Amino acid sequence: MKPILAVYPGSFDPITYGHIDVVERAAALFPHLVILVARNTSKAPLFTDDERIAMIREVFRSNRSIEVDGFDGLLVDYARRRKASVIVRGLRAVSDFEIEFQMALTNRKMSKELETIFLVPREQYSYLNSTIVREIARLGGDVSDFVPPVVRRQLRAKFRLRK
Ligand code: PNS
Known about the structure:
Elements: E1 5-10, H1 17-29, E2 32-38, H2 49-59, E3 66-71, H3 75-82, E4 86-90, H4 94-110, E5 115-119, H5 130-138, H6 149-162
Parallel strand pairs: 1-2, 1-4, 2-3, 4-5
Bound molecules: 4'-phosphopantetheine (PNS).
């Protein structure tokens, strides 16, 4: 059997400790994991694709089984091109379920060989999302409990430039 390639797609605008928890769980299950910075058409990102990719690469630079990539197209097309068979998504609370269920079934309709699995991050991250982190940083709050140092630095730089 060929080793499974798993893809963990998201906006990661920016990556938080909640995402990192999901990555660590997925990396323990699959020999190779791609963290994919993808476009969510319902969101206008704060960071560019390149900035988000660079931050994630910095976070996982010592882990050779984790790759970071970007793609501006359909997730199923990326998965097909890379011969990935698993999509990983984090599920924090019931409120995530509806949209995740819709995406998983839509992706399955477009690519029936693609399986979506959901991983549950530690409960201390169940309330955490990138929108909250951006808002706290924008208003000058401390985000060190929510994001790694590289992200904290980039948030500071981003908002200092905007003032
Ligand atoms: O972190 P997010 O914003 O919840 O991630 C959503 C994302 C980027 C995974 C989703 O919007 C996506 O898959 N975008 C790529 C384009 C695509 O395939 N859209 C159809 C999804 S059913």
